[in-house]
Amino acid sequence: MPSLLEVKGLNAWYGESHILHGMDFEVRQGEVVTLLGRNGAGKTTTLKSIIGMVGRRDGSIRLGGTETIRMPSNAIARLGLAICPEERGIFSSLNVEENLLLPPKVRDGGLSLESIYELFPNLRERLKSQGTKLSGGEQQMLAIGRILRTGARLLMLDEPTEGLAPVIVQQIGRTIARLKQQGFTILLVEQNFRFAQTVADRYYVVEHGRVVDMVPNAALDANMNKIHAYLGV
After folding, report:
1. Is the pLDDT of residue 232 over 90?
2. For position 213, what pLDDT does the model report?
3. Rounded Cα–Cα distance for residues 215 and 170 (Å)
């Protein structure tokens, strides 16, 4: 499979704080790739750096063969990249339908509202409910559904199962599997390793702002002790 995303020598800073120290990894077309690591390792900063949401970055980020390191976030999004942030970013004053319709379409090929409701039936039931009235699980469904309308084919999901009930976690897992079947490529940051095991093709381990290991899902059992050591579990 060709690489859809290639990250090489990526450095990133928040003010004077140097967070990423030469990140190197790739995500191939149609893969689900998970960034693993302890809190503070630089996983979320990696996602924000890829889409240009940090104050300063250098190195190389190629999306579909296009170098994006010096491009603004809106131009990067038009190449077919979208991020679902950990904080979800639901507008509390808007209802479900208004939240879904708010982001602009950046490319053709986004899912219709009907397709999103098929993935997340709860959203159809809560269509006119305000963002503040939704449960945590419903907010996560809305946050994911919102980026599916845009036409992005590479989705970056930051901690999509954090704080959710097991039944909702299972639904998010089924959704990721369906999106992969539909040709989406997904870069996932996830603390819930048990969940990541059910969806990921490969894992990159991040420590102190750099990739220290890569484990394909087929070799996971043989490397489980090493993974647990990396994660401190």
Report:
1. no
2. 97
3. 23
